Amino acid sequence: MAAGVAAWLPFARAAAIGWMPVANCPMPIAPRDHSKRKDELIILNVSGRRFQTWRTTLDRYPDTLLGSSEKEFFYNEEAKEYFFDRDPDAFRSVLNFYRTGKLHYPRYECISAYDEELAFFGIIPEIIGDCCYEEYKDRKRENAERLMDDQEENKDCKMPNMTFRETMWRAFENPHTSTMALVFYYVTGFFIAISVITNVVETVPCGYKSQKDVPCGERYTVAFFCMDTACVMIFTVEYLLRLFAAPSRYRFMRSVMSIIDVVAILPYYIGLVMTDNEDVSGAFVTLRVFRVFRIFKFSRHSQGLRILGYTLKSCASELGFLLFSLTMAIIIFATVMFYAEKGSSSSKFTSIPASFWYTIVTMTTLGYGDMVPKTIAGKIFGSICSLSGVLVIALPVPVIVSNFSRIYHQNQRADKRRAQKVQKARLARIRIAKKGSSTAYLQTKRNGLLNELLDLTASEVEQQHLNKTSSLLESQHHHLLHCLEKTTGHEFVDEQLFEQNCLEGALQPYRSHSRTPSGSSQDGLTGTCCSRRSKRGSTPTPVPNASLPALHTQPHMLTHTLPKSPGLQELSAINIQCAEQQLHSSSRSNLNMQTNEVDRRNTRQQLQQVTTAIISVQTPSTGSSTEEDDDSHGLPNPGASVVTTASSNIVRVSAL
Amino acid sequence: MSQCRKRCKRQLTKVARYFYRFVTGTLTQDSIEDDFELSTVCHRPEGLDKLQEQTKFTKKELQVLYRGFKNECPSGVVNEETFKHIYSQFFPQGDSSTYAHFLFEAFDTNKNGSVSFEDFVAGLSIILRGSINDRLNWAFNLYDLNKDGCITKEEMMDIMRSIYDMMGKYTYPCMQDDAPREHVENFFQKMDRNQDGVVTIEEFIESCQKDENIMQSMQLFDNVI
């Protein structure tokens, strides 16, 4: 129950008077407030700062520390106050939660300290109000990422018994772990640089050979070839080592870095394999272009490069938009320029695709000047083109920039989609908590039933113990729901059971009418109400000693003999309180009961079994003790009538 | 020709006005702020002593009641929406809005659309501290939707349906559609002595006094406060 409105529970209960005249069954007895304490001021001393509040304020949330009896552990007898050795600033928001029903997250507070306080006082953070929830979640996520980073750094501590393979992988991933790894890291970096520089220098012209500028690559072929070979050797060895050390080779091979590695070294091997064939050497030369990809291997060495790559990946939508809008604008303006310049002679705008180049150069404000419009119309449209170019390009760029800066500072923060999932998860949690109130009632009914059964058999001590389990507020709320059930003659069940019942209700052809008119001493209405319930579980013919229950009820019973099926248990409870006169002496000899509890409950409704000897032997005195309270409002003692008729039945020992 | 020119002029003025508005950027009127002024109505109840005279609660009980009331409704009055919302918290499985509406009507004795603390306490005083007859009268007042002194079958149907709505869908046994009707028939059978199709206050009180269950259940919530 949303305990924020706990103050209104007395009102809701009073308003239940509206159901009384229309109810057919007598109402269950209300739980008494035994400890009729007057509402008093409680002093909470938190590290010296004294807070005062009413006891009922704290009682609003009985599942927290302050609302439950757990606070008695902190009671200081001499000073007659509750002392908590916690942060008084954080306690302020905790106490405000009790007062207003809304939990706020103070922005100046450290997130983990706040979490600890909430955990100490037994408050779940999900109920933080909407005003503060986003902030709370953001801070929490930041903190989690920071902790994750710290953890990753702390992984440097060498775990014992790491295999050689694992050591090698760790060395590759974190060069700081050992000197060997560091050396390897620097060596590969050096060779990447050498390789890239070699590629560049290869094409520089140095010296003449037969009056033609010759690039160094052709002049010092052998030297460059040796360099290339050395680099490729190193890269190959590195790649093979990584492949060997990778925990999941398949995943490693699919990763971007390994693809770059492969692309970087492949041209060399292809070149080796291919002969000096004139036809393919042209293609081979183009392959050499791929050698420049070696520069991407630097991204293993540079964090910034990785972040840039990640940014571009995460801004894919903005980049896509930029590209799309540019394309649209280019096509439009190229077309316009082409038709505008069609008239002029010796125009460079020979076709629309030819005008693309002009449009791109103009929109990006480069303006090479190799293509210029000559007609007036062309010039007008050209100026419009350059103005709009500025706009179109300027719009998405700040987004990309801000993205980069954000990622750079936060280092891979979660994206919007994960936030949505969190929101969904949060809503689901709140829904579950809300559902908890309705399931709590069903749960209590089951527990209550157990209590009643044990009342008959257990000793005083156990009984006391069981009675104290639920709080007063809960029991009052459940009593209210129970009254509603009585008024309408239906009961609350949970979804699954409801579906089950509907299903089986469709299957069951017969309806058992076991109402024995003579049995009911109440007026007809009560009988109707209660007999509706008796229809559920009984066999049509009250045959004592029958060893075979009627066929159609067997499936009926079986479906209800699931452990924790509330239906039958409710029935028993009601039978105790509602003057259930019709006694079904049908047999229940061997139904396959799964648990003892269920067994007892099922049979209780037949009033013959259930640790049965006690029931049948004892007379009304037992019956009266089944009443929960002494002041039973004078309801006709159902226990008595129940027992007397039970004694007339044959006691059947249940399969306990 | 002159008509054409007139039309052209009209269009031009429209276009000109549009451009003027476009350039200067007129905004819509700030009408939202006006609404805020009236919503914060604060109601202060009468003094504690006066309430103590009018109702049968002790001072302490009134204090507890008021604190709870004020906490949920800082403005001092409950309107129907809040009332429905509060009541629905107690019945998570069903739809309690109709019954809450009837309750609201019963508490709102001066029919001004809001329940103040005095109304609230007056109602509670009857229910919790009044004599049996007073309580029965109050219940009758609740059922009598149009306050004409007699309960017709339609009114009872409405009430019954609203109560059954609070149970929600997942009940055992499955809620039949005619369950409220059956219940109403039973009720009329019991209450309507002269079988004239309506239940008057005398019939109601008489029949209830004869029924022991009802008598007992009327006193069930005495110690709620």
From TrEMBL, chain A:
> Region entry Disordered: which residue ranges?
510-564, 613-643
Q: How does it sit in the membrane?
A: Multi-pass membrane protein
- The stretch of residues making up the signal peptide is 1-16
Could you name the Gene Ontology cellular component terms for this entry?
A: dendritic spine; neuronal cell body; postsynaptic membrane; voltage-gated potassium channel complex
Q: Which terms under GO biological process does the entry name?
A: action potential; potassium ion export across plasma membrane; protein homooligomerization
Q: What is its main location?
A: membrane
Listed A to Z, the keywords are: Ion channel, Ion transport, Membrane, Potassium, Potassium channel, Potassium transport, Signal, Transmembrane, Transmembrane helix, Transport, Voltage-gated channel
Q: Where are the transmembrane segments?
A: 220-241, 253-274, 319-340, 352-368, 380-401
Q: Where is the composition biased (Polar residues)?
A: 515-531
Domain BTB, first and last residues per copy: 40-139
Return the Pfam families for the record: BTB_2, DUF3399, Ion_trans, Shal-type
Localization per Swiss-Prot or TrEMBL: Membrane
What GO molecular function annotations does the UniProt record carry, in alphabetical order? A-type (transient outward) potassium channel activity
Q: How does it assemble?
A: Component of heteromultimeric potassium channels. Identified in potassium channel complexes containing KCND1, KCND2, KCND3, KCNIP1, KCNIP2, KCNIP3, KCNIP4, DPP6 and DPP10.
Q: Which family does it belong to?
A: Belongs to the potassium channel family. D (Shal) (TC 1.A.1.2) subfamily. Kv4.1/KCND1 sub-subfamily.
Query: Which named protein is this?
Result: A-type voltage-gated potassium channel KCND1
